[in-house]
Amino acid sequence: MQTFDLEAQDLRALNTALHAQAETLSQANWEVVNAKGSHAIAVGLDAPIEVTVKGSTGYYCAGMNSQAKVHVHGSAGPGVAENMMSGTVIVEGDASQYAGATGHGGLLVIKGNASSRCGISMKGIDIVVHGNIGHMSAFMAQSGNLVVLGDAGDALGDSLYEARLFVRGSVKSLGADCIEKEMRPEHLEILADLLERAGADAKPEEFKRYGSARKLYNFDVDNASAY
Amino acid sequence: MCGIVGLFLKDRSLEPRLGALLTDMLVTMTDRGPDSAGIAIYGGEAAGSAKLTVQSDDPQTDFATLAEELGSVIDAAVSGAVKDSHIVLTLPADKVAAARQALPELRQGVRVMSTGAAMEIYKEVGLPRDVAARFAVSQMSGSHGIGHTRMATESAVTTLGAHPFSTGLDQCLVHNGSLSNHNALRRKLRREGIHIETENDTEVGAAYLTWKMQTGSSLGEALKSSLEALDGFFTFVVGTKDGFGVVRDPIACKPAVMAETDQYVAFGSEYRALVNLPGIETARVWEPEPATVYFWNH
């Protein structure tokens, strides 16, 4: 375990050291202390390493992550795990806006609440939020799974493509072209697996599934004159 | 961008440290907006007395005998404390209107930054660190205060474009965001007789609140109706004589973090601004909801 103190050393030195692990893997376990809301902690990792962050983080923590497991013992600022490719990011506290935005893969777990625009434009990432999510979450979400144990805010899944949304609590309102859908056995299976991997104490049967009505993004010949 | 900080003390033993805590919070937010900075600070209230904070681009020549001259014109005891480009004039509360009328005649070009029993507003062009040092903000004590560091988008980088803006007696507004209907609203408010000095969008937001309150709304009601009347992005923090409030537009893309302990309620554009506050490790930290008016009062 190598400890990195952000009060003693600067952020660029931390990320340089972590990026070096992509070339030669010499240290698999890292601990970052005195995070104190710093931006861009552990961004752009591309190695099978584990990074534990003590304290809350600022913008873009664990952005563009590949392979690594980043565990934040605190809350995360805007854009945590933005554009993640693979790996795992766990936030023990809350996450600010656009958590997991545009993510292509991997698993993002938020143990507290996520605010607005969680999973906006997600492209294959799996996101499990133990608490609630804010408005405009999963806007234009293309693929992947968003699981919410609590409630969802306004306009969930607006202009949704093919991402699956699972919500256990209430949904304040659904966005354009987002509808409730039948929960089939294969969905329960996906959900059971995600809940287990996210350490979430909930049963798949307690959730409702929401998805795209596919009216908005498919060309309809009746609308040809509008083009 | 722009950065906002706010600190409302519940524990009076922290009052001597208010200026120092606010300065640290504001300097941390420098990279959110390095072109101008300002603070509104509340304290030093005395029964029957009012404070006018006045700014001049040429304080050396303007301020030396200003309190004395004003005192003889309005026939009252006036004292003055010069802080760099600003002077805080203390005078009987019932002489405020007379003093505001007399000031432009005594000194051309001076600007009244704020009026009230407790509030003083200091703002200038420059980095938060330099602006705070010019006014010795870290030496100031008080019950609550708001700070702002600006990245100008809608109007020029000038002292009058800096925040906070005064919205009335002991009331001020700071803003992170940009309003898109400020030109139309400025014309409307000017027709209503509201004085608006600059082309700045936030000044229009402040003038709107002033107008609503002059026509019978409470500050809470004025903030609520601002959600309808103002188009654009905003996180607003407002100061009042005994409290402060927060409101974000319904889209809420301008960041906001709040923290509360038994000793204080704090606001920061980012969590970074709050990390040196006492007891932050165990504070309740949360993000204010969109289109929701929050208030804390003594």
TrEMBL record, chain A:
Domain of life: Bacteria
InterPro entries, sorted: Glu_synth_asu_C_sf (IPR036485), Glu_synth_lsu_3 (IPR012061)
Secretion signal, residue range per the UniProt entry: none
Database matches in Gene3D superfamilies: Glutamate synthase, alpha subunit, C-terminal domain
Molecular function in Gene Ontology: oxidoreductase activity
Name of this chain's protein: N-methylglutamate synthase subunit B
Organism name: Marinovum algicola
From TrEMBL, chain B:
Glutamine amidotransferase type-2 domain segment(s): 2-298
Alphabetized InterPro entries for the sequence: GATase_2_dom (IPR017932), Ntn_hydrolases_N (IPR029055)
SUPFAM superfamilies: N-terminal nucleophile aminohydrolases (Ntn hydrolases)
Keyword line: Glutamine amidotransferase, Transferase
GO MF annotations, alphabetized: transferase activity
Classification via Pfam families: GATase_6
Stretch forming the signal peptide: none
Full protein name: N-methylglutamate synthase subunit A
